[in-house]
Each structure stands twice: as C-alpha cells, then as structure tokens.
User: Fold Quinone oxidoreductase from Bradyrhizobium canariense.
Amino acid sequence: MKAYVYGPGGATISDVAQPKPEGTQVLVRVRACGLNRADTGMRKGHAHGAAGGAGTVLGMEWAGEVAALGPDAKGLKVGDRIMGSGGAAFAEYTLADHGRLFHAPSNMNFEEAATLPVALATMHNAVVTIGGVQPGQAVLIQGASSGVGLMAMQIAKLKGARLVIGSSTDAYRRSRLKEYGADLAVDSSDPSWVDEVLKATNGEGVDLIVDQVSGKVANQNLAATKVKGCIVNVGRLGGTHGDFNFDLHAARRIDYVGVTFRTRTVAEVREIFEEVRKDIWGAVESRKLQLPIDKVFAFDDIDKAFEHMEANKHLGKIVVTV
Assistant:
C-alpha cells in the first residue's frame, strides 16, 4: 500500500506492507487525513512522544471505513464510516484502537470528518474536563486560529461561557475569530493584549486560559488570569521554554495544568473519546461544532500540503485525500 514515510532522505510516498488488526485494533481504509502541527516536526525527523524517526508512517488524524476488525474490537462492523486519531494516518490503510474513534455522522463527507477527531478530543478535555469551564465564565484561547483553537472557542461557547477571547498574531485570521465564537480577538504579540483582557473582564482577568503558545506569553497569561483561575497548557506553538513569574503564580493562586496525549495510556485516551461522545456529540452531529477546511490536497501532493501549512497563512484545517 502507499504511505507517507519518514526515511533517511526525508519523508516520501513509499510502498509498505498493509497492517493487520490484532486485539482491539480496527483496520481502516483511509479516505482523508487532517494535517496537524505535530506532523510538521515528525516530517523533519523529530519525535512526537514515542513516535517518530526513520521508517515511521506519518500522520495522526483520519476518516475512512472499517476494512477489518481485530478479534476483540467492539461496537463496529466492516463498512462503517469512522473517524479517529492515532499513528500512521497518512496511508491507504491504518490501524486504530476501537476506543479511539468516532462513527462519522451521515451528514459529513470524509474530508469534513477528518478535520475533527484531534480537535474534539484535545479541546473537550482541555476546556471541559481539565479546565472545568462553567456557564457565565470568561475564557481565553491562546493560538485560537489553529484548528484546535477554533474548536476550543466553539466548545467554550457551547458550554455557556459568557466571554470568549481568542488570540492570533495574524490580522486576517484575527478578524475571522468571531465567526467561531470569539467575543474579542487580541494580538498576543502586542504587549497591550493583557490590558484588553483586563478591561473586558472589569479588571479581574479570565477564569480559564487554554494555552497553545506558552513560552513567551507565560507571564502575561498569569497577569490575565483572575485570582483562583486556571491555565491549561496544551501545546508549545510559541516555544518550549520561557521566563515564569512564580510569585505572580502564587499570588493569584492559579491552577496551572499541563496536558498532552503523548504520555496518556490507552485507557485514558479511550475515556477522553467517551467523554466527547457523552457530552457534545449531539452538537457534532448537528454541525454546531465544525471546522473550516482551508484547502484539500490529493495524496500525491502531500508535500505541497505541508508547504501550505508551513507558510502559516491558513485558517482551519488542511486535508489530504487518499
């Protein structure tokens, strides 16, 4: 089968053996894949958790059909339309754990379905489970113009947030954030953004920040969060290191929580997917929660899809059809 594989000379489309499902695994005939920021690093040879390196089939988000089932896979049958996340997505066939996927709604095509699994699982966990968003609260999403950021704002609104603030350093993308739930859009590269947040919250700060930028905005985040507020760190778009004002953190008594899928067990990931199904799946099926597709590429043009992502001018998801 065709797959996009990282090798000594970089990532290329190669012929590899079709995998076979074991245990609770499902064999998926992939029809479309969503690109994610972590894919760009792995394409350059960087590890993502335990995954990466020479011989790795890249990709982590897909939509397709059940082609075969492992002996312990439950709740599915051959031919079911599904979408999910996991390794080796950029291929004609991939394997997925039966608890790390969703049935694709009948009113979505494969390209649309491929945009959702990572964003839904990541941001329901960050905003609702870990962040504990409550009706009437104020929420700030750092890096809001990314696919997961757009989903975070929509989930916060769905759960009753009174004020949703999104950040983006790009003027065009910042102007589009209100279409996806933002009441206020700020430029996190402008030092005055903290003052804008404080003004919008009567000087108190937000109840919750979901932070995909980290690094350079860490101390500004502390200043923009209310006393006894919460910051959930889900990424490192702005860098892995930065100055941190421990005194301000203590003074404001902020819960600062780091989350990632890279160190979660299979059982933990299954629980996250189940929480999405129980809590917000109706909004997915009604298309109240959805993401824009910026551009669709054919599998043979996957390198062009990555060039488009690395140009960093897109809004929403980049999709590759297989």
Q: What stands out?
A: The chain has a mean pLDDT of 95.
